[in-house]
Structure formats: structure tokens, C-alpha cells
């Protein structure tokens, strides 16, 4: 039974997260589409964490090289995605005073 | 240690979700990315002591990790800070490609590690291979998208990448990659050579898929690759048993898919239509001939017409972005507002190169977002507008989309600029729009053409208004 639960819980996560992503985007005004696309682009920068784990376990030089590349690319995704999004969102202002 | 990691990953997932939620409203958007940023930093820091690493510590790997983060982070930081706002779409593309590449790299390490000693479960291997395929496609495809939007010389001519039987060739490459992937996943002991060929095929497919697509369709493609990367990250999350990756990846996968569909819908095209055909193949006959003449107008005269109007609606297009005219245009609008003219901005969903791209540029120039309206909100208002000022937009204001069934853009929702009392069009020259068709709007009796670089024209208009005193 426990094995069955262990097998199914990721599938539940998959379903709920999928619905959540759909719902979040559905209510976004068009003016925020590009920043939000950039924001979601940043969020999948979490791949960095996986690349770190992969590199941490690498044994052969080939694995280490690929793992190194993975971490490098993942860090680029996370850092670049963050600053591009931040720069865009920083510019949104209302004519009725500024709220942040 | 496992509890610490899982707790932090849980926090990270929560911060990502709340951050994205905050990003969906203009007033809280800025704080949204900051929240998500904290989540990312927490997850990254704690991952240095991930049990899967600390079980068998290899010091060299830690050094490599730190160096890779430093190099990758520094280059990306520099790029993100330096790039002009008009180049944002291709920056998103390249960072997205990096994510896809990272997912593919994780898969590669896992696949290489898995042959020999311990036998992993087949369904895990299938997910690793699927993530590798999707991630590699997103990587090479995004690199091509970047090259096209950056207008690098090599990618300049879309036509040279189109050849007969292209889709068959792509299908063969894709089929071969899938087949090899299955062999790798099911055999449990694939050789390094086989794995390399598999990755090469996947990378080739991504590039082949993106190469023939025209620049104006790229936003849809970038959005699609964004969703792909999300999916690839989630799949590798399953492989590593990493819940933060699964949740973040799936959220991006589903939201990215929805965003892609929304963009394609705004262009009145299906996603498959964007991917597998080109404009030239569309349209079902001769387009209606356009009658009338183009009537030019000088910027100061155009300015006077606007200065005495009670309502002006501005329709910016990619031409404004190219000319970097948003600052001058807003300066002119402020003068109009001082004269009690009602000024509004109307944004077509696919104006610019991404949905919302125009909004970002206008926001950069300081235009308050409550003056900016979506197509549905403002389309009725053109009837009451004295002047509609079109800046470097063409196909999105072409009335043929409503009337001419033979036109390739027939059926695409457009801004009803032709309903305004007067129409002014700032345009660099007499060329046709991206769809390669004449625009009857430009020949209409109430339309005046203001030729020139949008920034210079705006400067001329500012002078015109100032001269009125």
C-alpha cells in the first residue's frame, strides 16, 4: 500500500500544480503577459537545484563536465530570468500615485 | 538533513506560487518577483547539503559547482542589466534555453550514471529520456529564436531555411530521437555513444523546428519553448525525486501552454499553424485591390489636429519600438493632456513581439498603466475618437481582416482604427506590413500619412504643439 501511495503522490502534485499554473495565468491582464512569461521563465530556473544534485553525484570526468555545464546553464536561467523580470516590473506605475 | 531540505523546498514552492500570484496584478507585481527570488536563493543555498550529495562527498564537485554558479550567474546578470528593453523577448528566449539545456544536462548525467551496476526503474528512465528530449529541443530552439530576434546575419533570411519535404525531414529526425530514447530507457544499459546520438538528434530537431519560422511568429514559439522547459524540469524533478522542481516545472508547463494558446488565438492562428506553415502559404486567392491614394501630412499639422481634438487614441506597434520613440510620444501626450485632450493608448494583443511588450515599453517611458487599454476595452471607443494615431503598426489595424475573405489575415481581431474621425499613421516608408499585404486604411479618405522615423516625427509634433502656445 505504501508503495502505491508513494507512486501516486507525485501524480497528485502534478495535477494540482497543473491546475494552479492554469488558474494563475488565466486572470492576468494582457499588460503583464511579457513580464509574467519572464517570471515563469525565472521559476523554472529551479532546475539549478537539480543540476547541483546531478553534479554533486558525478564521478567520471564526463559526468562532471556535463554536470558543470548543467549548473552553469541553470544559474544563467535563474539569475538572468530574475533580473530581466525585475527590470520590467520596476517600470509599472499608476498615474494615481505609486504603490509598490 | 532530509527534513531541512524538504522544508525549504516546500517554502520555495509556496514562495513561487505566491510570487506568481502577486505578479498577476500591476501594483503587486514587483514584490511578486522578489518573493520568488527569495525562494530561489533559499533552495539553492540549502541544496549544497542535499543528502544525495553529502552521501558521498567529492570535494572537486563542490568547487565546480561554485565556479559554475559564479560564471553562469555573472554572465546572465550582466546580460540582463545591459540589454535594452526592446531586446527583452530574445533575452527571455536565451535564458529559457539555458533552463532547457540544464534539464537536458541533468538527464545526461543520470543516464550515464545508470548504466552498469544498479538497475533503475523503467518508468524513471522513460521520464529522464522524455525530459532530455524536451529540454534539448527547448535549448536549441531557443538559441535559434534568440538569433532570429537579435537579427544575426545567419538567421536573416527565413526562406533559405525552407525546403520541400521539410516537415517530413523533421518528423524523421523526431521519430528517430524518440525511438533511440525508448531503446535507451528500456535497455537499461545504453552506451555513451548511443546517448550522444540521441542528444544530437534532439538538438537538431529543436533547431530545425525553429529555423523556418518568421520573426513575427517567434513570441508564440518562445512561449511554447518556455512551457517545454517547464515540463522538462518537472520530468527531471521526478527522476531526482525533487518536489520543488516538480511543482515549479509543472506550474510553468501549464501556464506556459495557456499563454501560448492565448498568443496564437490573438493572432487568429493555431499553434500548429504557426509551427508548420508560413504566411505565404495562407490566403485563398487574390486579395481585394486597394483603391484611393496615400495622402501625406507634415508632423506639425498632425500635431495641430490632435491639439484641437477632444479625444486621441494612440495605437503603438513594433515600429515605435524599433524607433525607440516611446519617450518622445509620451512627452507629446503630456502636452496634449495639459491642453485637456483625453489621451488613451490602445494595445493589440500581438502588437510588438510579445503580448504586453508594448506595455512594457510604454511603462519604461513613464506612461501610467491606467491610460493603457486592451483591444476589447477600447475598440468601441474609436467611434468617439477625434484622432487615432497609429505608430508603426500595420497588420493589426488593417480593415481587410474584417472584410476581405481572401486576405491572409482575414478573421484576425483588429483595432477599429478606421472608425475614428481622423486617422494619422506614422510610418517609415511605403512598404507593406509583415503579412505582405496592402492596408486599405492607409488609403482611406480620413487617413493622413506622416512619413518618417517615429522619434523624429514625435519631436516635430512636440514642436508643433509648443508653437501653438
Summarize this, please?
In chain A, 76% of the residues lie in helices and 0% in strands. Chain A is mainly α and 100 residues long.
Plain-language structure description:
- The complex is a heterodimer of chains A (about 100) and B (about 475).
- Chain A is about 75% helix and about 0% strand.
- With about 100 residues, chain A is mainly alpha-helical.
- The radius of gyration of chain A is 19 Å and the shape is flat.
- The C terminus of chain A is likely disordered.
- In chain A, helix 3 runs antiparallel to helix 4.
- The longest helix of chain A has 30 residues.
- Chain B is of the alpha/beta class.
- Chain B contains 18 helices and 6 strands.
- In chain B, helix 17 links the parallel strand 4 and strand 5.
- The relative contact order of chain B is 0.09.
- About 0% of the residues of chain B have low confidence.
- At the A-B interface, helix 1, helix 2, helix 3 and helix 4 of A face helix 1, helix 2, helix 4, helix 5 and helix 9 of B.
Amino acid at each position: 500500500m505504501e508503495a502505491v501511495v508513494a507512486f501516486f503522490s507525485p501524480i497528485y502534485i502534478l495535477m494540482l500544480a497543473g491546475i494552479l499554473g492554469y488558474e494563475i495565468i488565466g486572470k492576468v491582464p494582457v499588460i503583464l503577459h511579457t513580464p509574467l512569461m519572464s517570471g515563469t521563465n525565472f521559476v523554472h530556473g529551479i532546475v539549478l537545484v537539480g543540476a547541483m544534485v546531478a553534479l554533486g553525484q558525478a564521478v567520471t570526468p564526463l559526468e562532471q563536465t556535463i554536470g558543470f555545464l548543467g549548473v552553469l546553464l541553470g544559474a544563467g536561467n535563474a539569475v538572468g530570468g530574475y533580473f530581466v523580470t525585475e527590470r520590467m516590473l520596476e517600470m509599472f506605475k499608476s498615474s494615481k500615485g505609486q504603490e509598490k | 538533513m532530509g527534513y531541512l531540505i524538504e522544508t525549504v523546498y516546500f517554502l520555495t514552492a509556496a514562495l513561487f506560487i505566491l510570487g506568481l500570484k502577486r505578479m498577476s496584478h500591476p501594483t503587486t507585481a514587483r514584490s511578486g518577483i522578489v518573493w520568488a527570488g527569495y525562494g530561489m536563493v533559499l533552495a539553492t543555498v540549502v541544496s549544497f547539503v542535499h543528502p544525495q550529495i553529502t552521501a558521498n562527498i567529492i570535494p572537486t564537485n563542490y568547487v565546480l559547482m561554485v565556479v559554475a554558479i559564479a560564471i553562469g550567474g555573472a554572465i546572465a546578470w550582466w546580460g540582463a542589466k545591459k540589454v535594452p528593453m526592446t531586446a527583452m523577448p530574445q533575452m527571455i528566449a536565451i535564458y529559457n534555453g539555458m533552463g532547457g539545456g540544464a534539464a537536458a544536462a541533468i538527464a545526461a548525467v543520470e543516464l550515464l550514471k545508470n548504466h552498469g551496476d544498479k538497475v533503475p526503474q523503467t518508468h524513471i528512465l522513460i521520464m529522464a529520456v522524455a525530459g532530455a528530449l524536451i529540454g534539448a529541443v527547448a535549448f536549441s530552439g531557443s538559441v535559434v529564436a534568440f538569433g532570429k530576434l537579435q537579427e544575426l546575419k545567419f538567421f536573416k533570411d527565413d526562406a533559405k531555411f525552407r525546403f520541400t519535404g521539410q516537415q517530413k525531414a523533421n518528423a524523421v529526425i523526431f521519430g528517430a530521437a524518440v525511438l533511440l530514447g525508448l531503446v535507451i530507457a528500456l535497455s537499461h544499459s545504453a552506451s555513451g555513444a548511443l546517448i550522444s546520438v540521441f542528444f544530437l538528434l534532439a538538438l537538431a530537431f529543436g533547431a530545425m523546428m525553429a529555423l523556418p519560422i518568421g520573426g513575427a511568429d517567434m513570441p508564440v514559439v518562445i512561449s511554447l519553448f518556455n512551457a517545454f522547459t517547464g515540463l522538462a524540469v518537472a520530468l527531471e524533478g521526478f527522476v531526482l525525486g525533487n518536489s520543488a522542481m516538480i511543482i515549479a516545472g509543472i506550474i510553468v508547463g501549464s501556464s506556459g501552454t495557456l499563454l501560448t494558446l492565448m498568443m496564437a488565438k490573438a493572432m487568429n492562428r493555431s499553434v500548429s499553424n504557426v509551427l508548420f506553415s508560413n504566411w505565404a502559404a495562407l490566403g485563398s486567392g487574390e486579395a481585394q485591390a486597394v483603391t484611393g491614394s496615400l495622402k501625406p501630412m507634415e508632423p506639425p499639422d498632425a500635431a495641430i489636429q490632435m491639439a484641437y481634438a477632444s479625444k486621441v487614441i494612440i495605437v503603438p506597434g513594433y515600429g515605435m519600438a524599433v524607433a525607440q520613440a516611446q519617450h518622445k510620444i509620451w512627452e507629446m501626450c503630456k502636452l496634449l493632456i495639459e491642453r485637456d485632450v483625453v489621451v488613451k493608448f490602445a494595445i493589440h494583443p500581438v502588437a510588438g513581439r510579445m503580448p504586453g511588450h508594448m506595455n512594457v515599453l510604454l511603462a519604461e517611458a513613464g506612461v501610467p498603466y491606467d491610460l493603457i487599454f486592451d483591444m476589447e476595452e477600447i475598440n468601441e471607443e474609436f467611434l468617439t475618437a477625434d484622432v487615432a494615431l497609429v505608430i508603426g503598426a500595420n497588420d493589426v489595424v488593417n480593415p481587410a481582416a474584417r472584410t476581405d475573405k481572401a486576405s491572409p489575415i482575414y478573421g484576425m481581431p483588429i483595432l477599429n482604427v478606421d472608425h475614428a474621425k481622423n486617422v494619422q499613421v506614422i510610418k517609415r516608408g511605403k512598404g507593406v506590413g509583415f503579412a505582405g499585404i496592402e492596408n486599405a486604411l492607409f488609403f482611406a479618405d480620413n487617413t493622413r500619412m506622416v512619413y518618417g522615423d517615429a522619434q523624429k516625427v514625435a519631436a516635430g509634433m512636440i514642436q508643433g504643439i509648443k508653437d501653438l502656445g
